[in-house]
Amino acid sequence: MRFVIIGAGRVGLRTARVLREEGHDIVLVELDRDRVKRAREADFEVVEGDGSREEVLVDAGIEAADALGALTADLNVNFAACMIGKHFGCRTVLRVDEDYREEVYQKYAKEVDEIVYPERLGAIGAKNALLGGSIRAIADIAQHLQVILVTVTEASPMNGYSIEEVALPANARVLAFGKKDGPMGIPLSDDSLETGDRVAVLADFDVLNDVRQLLVGDEVVTTAGGA
């Protein structure tokens, strides 16, 4: 696939490297000359200019691109680039650096295909490293939902029960299930939970502790300190 990435800073350049390693074609758009130089030294194709201007994106090949990632630290530039990308039929990804009010978030979410929060993604990794153990956050969804991957412990109140018998809170859903050392898949109602099995759950932030207590047990909740 071919991607146009606006911004050759920390987020943009790392994203470009990952995509290139997977064999995709990347064009970076960057206004800052020092960043342009660094990106070119890393053997990236770079168009120097303002990513919020249509003529610059045309120079970057937006007409033939599959998707556009607007990953600068400037929300106005990112949003303008996404609108241009939409005009050319691209999938659009918008970077947002702050937790805006819900109504502002919804405004942007309606106009683009995906919103990413680099700080949140970094925070998830840091939290996982700090907590360790049987719970790992996978992703934040919107501003109040999170996907977590839970490993069933011997202390789990649900150890030995089937998926159908797991009574999660109203604002939580089982998304996937995997036996110990096996692949994750669509959960079946008669799948039984045993020590070492993994369960992916989508849950509202308000009920995360309830989900953890149900699937892992009191000991991990106390150790995690409500993080």
Task: Write a compact overview of the structure shown.
With 227 residues, this protein is α/β, with parallel strands linked by helices.
Please describe the topology of this protein.
Elements: E1 2-6, H1 10-21, E2 25-30, H2 33-41, E3 45-48, H3 54-59, E4 67-70, H4 75-87, E5 91-95, H5 102-111, E6 114-116, H6 118-131, E7 135-141, E8 145-151, E9 172-178, E10 198-204, H7 208-215, H8 218-224
Parallel strand pairs: 1-2, 1-4, 2-3, 4-5, 5-6
Antiparallel strand pairs: 7-8, 8-10, 9-10
Helix pairs in contact: 7-8
What is CATH's topology name of the largest domain?
A: Rossmann fold
- Count of helices? 8
Q: Measure the end-to-end span.
A: 38 Å
Structural class: alpha/beta
Reading the helices and strands in chain order gives EHEHEHEHEHEHEEEEHH
Unreliable spans are 220-227
The main β sheet shows up as: 6 strands, parallel
